[in-house]
Amino acid sequence: MALDLNTGDYKIFREAFKKFIDTEIKPHYQLWEEEGLVPRELWLKSGGQGFLCPWAEEKYGGSGADFGYSVIIAQELARAGTHVMFPLHSDIVVPYIASFGNPEQKNRWLPGCVSGELLAAVAMTEPDAGSDLAAIKTTAVRDGGCYVLNGAKTFISGGEQCDIVIVACKTDPKAAPPHRGISLLVVENGTPGFNKGRRLHKMGLKSQDTVELFFEDCRVPATNLLGLENQGFSCLMQKLQQERLVAAVAAQGLAEKMLKEALAYTSTRSIFGKPVSKFQHNAFKLVEMATEIEMGGVFLERLVEEHMEGKNVVKRVSMAKFRITETANRVAYDCLQLYGGYGYIEEYPICRDYRDIRVQTIYAGASEVMKSIIARDLGI
Question: What is the residue range of 61's domain?
Fold first, then answer.
């Protein structure tokens, strides 16, 4: 039977989370956009209601739920146009601890991640190394019971408020090939030598704090090594399938939102004596968008199902990440055009959506990187 995230317990959870968005997020979201930060109180409220890391085992405070619940959270946040970083924390960063952490590490960090008391970030990107992770220059040299960490990271979402950050670093700078020398270290906020830099002012997603991070002779306990030394690249590759799937889910949800609102607007806004949607060109544009969104949604549903079954769908997830995020960007362009001048005014949601969707083709692996992955699988 095909997965249906709109029935049974899924439906109950979806309705509860939609209510949470309506009461705890929407009324304040514009203020958070202006301030460039989501308050810690929201994370605690979310964790208290079971909306953070719902997949975590009960002994860590979670519900032991399946990935479908994470998909619902990502969908509803996108459909509401409220891009709070719950999916980044819950489904991209914290799973590294759950999958590669030892029992002591899990007991130390997972309960706080589930409750919202600990906010987690991951630091991979550097000023001179983005999609090419093997090119990172941050180093960690073993010195007794510590690693001495030196380097800089940039574009770190959630970095300003994070309590722990998983840092990709070179523990063997001479490794050949270079990716075989990468390890993952969990650095706790307040560790001497760990400094949070300036908040980066972005085109969109303004309520998501994004910063630079600096490590200067930062002594990290060796007990904070996540997984095995020099095996970090393998860990990263194992988790990228889910990261890119989450990104595709969010892009799909925002595309659905933009189309729904454009259909409503163009059916009531008139020009030359008839609704904007009644002009053939505009009607065809709306039909084209609706068709592409529908097809993307069906493909995505199947991928979510296969991912939950534990299948390796890296190639097809790469296809979804590339195609759905590109489609969502075209939808934003065409929808804004249908609004005319009003689409360029901040009081209309399409204005913010247009900015917010742009990064989807860049982070979690740019479209060009997705195409390269697909090409290799095709033997090109």
Answer: 8-118
